[in-house]
Every structure is written in C-alpha cells, then in structure tokens.
Queue: 3 jobs
Job 1
Amino acid sequence: MSNVKVDQPRQIIDAAAPTSKAEAEQSQAAAEYDTKSDDIGKLSMSVKVHSPFKTYYDGAAFSISGDNATGPFDILPRHHNFISLLDTCELVVRSQKGDEKIQIAGGIMHVKADEVIVFLDV
C-alpha cells in the first residue's frame, strides 16, 4: 500500500478576475457603463467649452479629446479629477449629435464629477 499525500485545496484564480482594488474599480465602471446609460446606450458627461466672449460647446458628451504638454489624451465619463493646460490643438467633443471639432490656441481643462470645463483664451 503506497502512502499518498493529498495536497491542500488549491485556489483557482480566474485570469479575468481583478487582482487589485484599481482593477476591481475599472471592472465595476465598465459594467456600469453598460447598465447606467442615456437614451443611446452610452454614459455621458457635461462639457462646456468657452472663452470670455463665446461659448463653443455646452451640453452632454461621450468623450472629449485634446493635447497637453505630454501629448494627446481623452476624457471619458467617470474620469478622475483632472486639470491641465492645453496646447494648440483641435479639441474633439463626441456627442449624440456627432463630433464637434474646435481649433484652439491653448486653454485650461478642468474635470470633476462628470463635468468638464474648458476655458479658452485665458
């Protein structure tokens, strides 16, 4: 009779399962992206792009893209608080009505709680 040892039960780790708090939050946000949505199936955020004398965009959007000193970037709904100086670029605001492209010479972008404010000509 051979003496066979039984191994301790092994924990099976799902490769797709989040392994850190940040990954868990990203997975939760992705799941909410599919369930909490507006009338066309996407999350949105409030975006206002304005200068002292003109408002270029004011409404809901799915994303906004621009350039800063480190390069191009995108802001999506549920983005962390963020503030940046903008370089000369073309801001692209994506909404239900399509893409709104705004040529800018620079500005400041402030993101907080699904609200994006872009100040131009400051």
Job 2
Amino acid sequence: MTDAADITVWLDSARNGDRAALDHVLSTLYHELHAMARRQLCGQHGHTLDATSLVHESYLKLLGSNRSASFEDRGHFFAYAASSMRSVVVDYARNRLARKRGGDLKRVAEIPEDVEGPLRLDEDMLSLNDALDQLAAADPRLARVVEMRYFAGLSELEIAELLQRSERSIRRDWQKARLFLLSVMSDA
C-alpha cells in the first residue's frame, strides 16, 4: 500500500483543482481497486463484467458524474470508489436480468453474514440495491459501511482504518445495517 500521507497530499492538490494529482491518486491506487474488484467478482464465469472492466467503469463514474470530485482523505476516496463500484455492478445486474427475463424482476431476501465470496449478479443484487438506497436515506454512515464491505470487499478492520473508527463499532454498524437490509428486503 502507498503511504497514506502521500495520498492525502495528492488528494489535497486534487481538491484544489489539480487534475494531474487526482490522476496520480487513481493510478497509484489502481492495483488496490483492481484487487478489490477481482476479489468481488471471482467465480463469475460467463459474465462480460470482469475486474478490469469494473475498475474502468467505476473510474468513469467516479470522474464523469462529478467533475469537481474532491476527497478528504484515503477513506473518503475508497468510500466513493465503493459507491461507484456498487453503481456499476447494479447497472450490470439490472441490464443482464432485463435481457434474460424480459424485465420481470423478483425480490429475494438474502444478504450473507460473511461477504468473503463473490458478488452475485442476480435479483438479490437489485433487491439489495433498493434496500441500500432506503438505508442511505435513514443512516448514510451505515450505508457507507455496507458499500465498503459488500461492494468493495473490504474487511471490518480495513473499513475501521479508513473511517478512523474502531473495528468493534464497524462490526456493530455492519450488523445493524444487515438487519435493516434484511427487513426491507423481506417486506418487498
């Protein structure tokens, strides 16, 4: 991993309008983003979305939707990257299912306790996305933890370090968020 102080300096420059600094941050963290994407998509055979595509599409969303993107620190950058990855994966699943089933989407209430495995690009993903939108409206902090854990594949310890919180509080946030999501997904 690159020194967090270097990343913060580059992010400060990027926040002040230095596009080259933002490009430097992205190129430096590309391998970490690619590893996260690869970990999340492993075992997804027969899909056109691979780790490289996910990182590149996320990069385009990261910069395309918000030309004046500014990141306070490394944690904020990864939270935003996780949100971009979520958006790409959900769009991919939505398009894939619409083609496969003629647009007839059914909801299934399931979110695993252990998110070490790959993302499932199916109805569960779309159901989770809708529930996550509701969670974000109720508690943005919990939604950020879910995005970082589920969509970026970060561990509770990694999230705690990035958000400068204790691992125990992240674990509690994950449990609260998971219960909320399961409740919403079950009611759908």
Job 3
Amino acid sequence: MAQAASGKIRLQLQLKLLMSEPISKILSETVAAPFATTLPETLPGLDVGDGLRRATGRPDRYLPLLESFRRTYRHCLAELSALLAAGDRDATLAFVHKLKGTAGNIGAREVFAVCVALEKDIRAQRDTTALQQRFEQSWTQLLSSLQALATSAGCHDPDAAESAR
C-alpha cells in the first residue's frame, strides 16, 4: 500500500514538473524521437504548450486529438455559414459552443476566442459579419497548421481521397 501511495505521489510530482517546464524541454527530455520530430514547439493558430499540457504532457495523446479535431471540423466554415444562413439560432449556438470547447481543449486560442464572441453576438441577435470574417481567418490559419502537422506525421487526408475519386 505504501508503494502505491509513493508511486502516486511520484506521478503527481512528475506531472507538475511537466506542466511547468517549457515545451522544448518536455520534448527533448520526455518524448520519444518520432513525436519530437513531428510536434513543433509553435504552430500558427495553435498554442502547442497549452494543448500539450491538457494532454498531460504526452504528444502520443495530443497528436491524435489534433488529428481527430482536424477530421471532425474540416468542413467547419461551410457548416457554420450554412447554419447562419438558415437562421437556426439554436443549432448555430450548439455548433459554435461545441467547437469552442473542442478548440479550447487543443489550444486553438484564437478560434476559441472568436467562438466566445460569436456565441454572445448570436444570443444577443447582433450582426456577426465581422466575427465571421475573423473566424474564417483564424480557422484557415489553424486548419493549415493542422494539415501541415498531419502531413509531416504521415496521416491520411480524407479530403485528398475524396477529390481523387
């Protein structure tokens, strides 16, 4: 029992250390070589450190989250535009809220911030044209970074397969 408690304390201390260290140090000291080469310290539109901390400092957990996010939301701009054009306030709010939470979890801070503002303006029934443009810019930047990361990690691109048919 004492060994289990000691192991738990050691794990907690290691996690605290990982959370406080710079990304470069985490990558160089605790990450297997394949992940260190596929996960850059910074990516436009993505706070890698924040996302990595949320994945307990483990790129082997963070990279699949990024890939899942990229695949799930790859048509996000078209979906959001369609929802806004349809005027379905509840469906639009649900979509933006879900995207906001997921973007925040992976460290996509600008997309998260725009989603927060979009939620407020949709609820208040204000014009969202400027926010939609800001969202498109931040989304395009994030998606480009995620696509580059996926390509460098050798992930299959579902859009490329669709367009090849």
